[in-house]
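=== RUN LOG ===
request id: a7f3
mode: sequence -> structure
chains: 1
length: 398
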Amino acid sequence: MNTLPLPLDGITVVAVEQAVAAPFATRQLADLGARVIKVERPDGGDFARGYDTAARGLASHFVWCNRGKESLAVDLKDARGLAVVRELVAGADVFVQNLAQGAAARLGLDAATLCAAHPRLVAVDISGYGAVGPYAHKRAYDMLVQCEAGLVSVTGTAEQPVKAGIPAADIAAAMYAFSGVLAALLRRASTGRGGPVEVSMLDALAEWMGHPLHQGTHGSAPPARTGLAHSVIAPYDAYATADGEQVLLSVQNDREWRRLAEQVVGRPELADDPDFATNAARTANRERTDEAVGRALAGLTGREALAALDAAGIACARLNTVADVAAHPQLAARDRWREVGTPVGPLRALLLPITLPGSEEARMGAVPALGEHTDVLLRALGMTDEQTSALRRDGVIV
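=== RESULT ===
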């Protein structure tokens, strides 16, 4: 059987992007076969390049979000540089930008302007808070949006709210931009027209607030912060084992509680005790429930506890470190790691989570150096070596 091509083969994306939200969205498109041209400032490029040096001298955020792209370093404040990008957009299928609010419109690179000029173009505006409203022009970074969306209010312990350990607002916006592009391309296939796509970080993360938002909106108190415990299910928490590991378990119904009480806790009478027999009772008596479960697991090693829970059919997991995840046996067994080229040599990276059996494997191209593809791209637009040399001399390109 012939292998199917990647679904976005032949699609060209131009992205004026920085930080995480837009770059992570366009990286998904690149992984699925699109050609992604990343437009960066000549004076340092995407500022995420400078976040840290943790990836063998490169910034970890940048390596994560920018594989498989071509880097064009051009000054958009110079009319000649802006003209280059406009010419690239004219031949593209998708344009994505997440500049500060109003900046794209001043350059004529906002979705509405571009789609009016190029009806088949799918153009995406990613912002912090949207184009209108009292927050439209506020600076919007991930942690700030986590706070505005209420995520921090439901994350952490009773005493201390905490932000998520990953850029949740950026990722949420990225994934809605990614899916918005796919939806718009599908519509274009039947109508011939692309159109604007708008995504805001606040809208995206507010949607991800899900059940806490519904609880608070419809008259109930929002869930309390409970650390690793679940706010309305017990037992559903992490418990220390004899060797210092933390093992999480989740009991989803009273049948599972019976198995846990009989086979792991060693106290079968708790299955019928009215203080523990139902989830409502266990939640009301959470401290006593956790004490019973914790005492049982404290006498076992982490490995023994997981084996006992698995044998009883109780959902469980280790509280892994980042190093544990990098060596996770399930990821290894499913062959999820690849090597990606970078300016400092190959680095390990995970495959795109979307698997398409019968198709080519996700295209995990190299992470580009700043301006690595500038000359090739300008030459493809018909620019001579003399013209590119003049632009470089004037600091318009690198």
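=== NOTES ===
The first strand starts at residue 12 and ends at 16.
The chain has a mean pLDDT of 97.
=== END ===
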